[in-house]
Structure formats: structure tokens, C-alpha cells
């Protein structure tokens, strides 16, 4: 029994010593800076801005319609019978609800479009980061743009220039 325990301890310490001798190669990158350097990001941003302007324009048209009907209602409400007045008020509430629903749907559509446009860009950036890390023997790559890394030493290498070169960016 003693031999087994001693053998296990020797095996454990020799394995631990082997791992302790391996050096960690740590790198870092600011992915936001990388994404800004990628031309695909500009194209995606332009598409998002175009979509946002279209949706904003439609929302403004709907708001003008509501304002016009509301002004018309205010100017004539004293002349309306109770039934007509209630019908007009219901119509105004309906338009306001449609505007709110449109705004919510527009936000969701914009978020989905943003995800769809940026997914391939992020995938391309991540593949390049992974390739550079493997080619250069990095153990870890930290993303400085996430705000989670509290400290990185001078021995951590900035791989942004390597990734830019991999992607053929300036």
C-alpha cells in the first residue's frame, strides 16, 4: 500500500513539474479596434443607418397622421355627438398603439439586422485571431475591449498587428 501511495505521489509531482515548466504565452488584442479597421464594418454600418432612416421616416409619417387627426378632433369635438366623439377617441388611441407597436418592431428589426450584418464580420475576426494564436503558439489571448481584463503585463504581446496582417488590413 505504501508503494502505491509513494508511486502516485511521485507520478503526481513529476506531472506537476512538467506542467509547471511549460511557459504560458499570453497575448492581447482590442477587438473593437480590429473591427473598426475592417472595411466590412463600414459597409454594415451604412446598411444599418439606411434601415434606421427608413424606419424613422415611416414613424414620422405615422406621428404626423396622429397629430393631424388629433388637431382635427380638438377643433371639432364640441360639435360631435357622444358616439362620434368616442369613435374618434378610440381611433386616436388605435393610431397611438400602432405607432408604439411599430417602434417596438422597428427596434427588434434593427437589432436582428445588426446581428445578421456583424455575425460574419465577427466570425472572420475571430478566425483570424485564432489562426494567429495557433501560428504563434499563444496559450491565451485576452480581449482588452471587453473591459474585463484588469491588468496585462508588458510580457503580454499585442497581436493586433499580426491579425491585421493576416486579414491584409492597414
Concise account of the structure shown:
The chain is mainly alpha-helical.
Features:
elongated; 74% helix; Protein Binding, DinI Protein, Chain A; three-stranded parallel β-sheet; 170 residues
Oligomer: single chain
Order of strands, widest sheet? 2-1-3
Nearest-integer average pLDDT: 88
Radius of gyration: 30 Å
Count of extended strands: 3
Structural class estimated from helices and strands: mainly alpha
List the total number of helices.
5
User: In total, how many domains does the architecture comprise?
Assistant: 1
Unreliable spans: none
Q: Please outline the major beta sheet.
A: 3 strands, parallel
Q: So, the CATH homologous superfamily? A: Skp domain
Shape: elongated
CA distance, first residue to last residue: 65 Å
Query: What is the element string, with H for helices and E for strands?
Result: HEHHHEEH
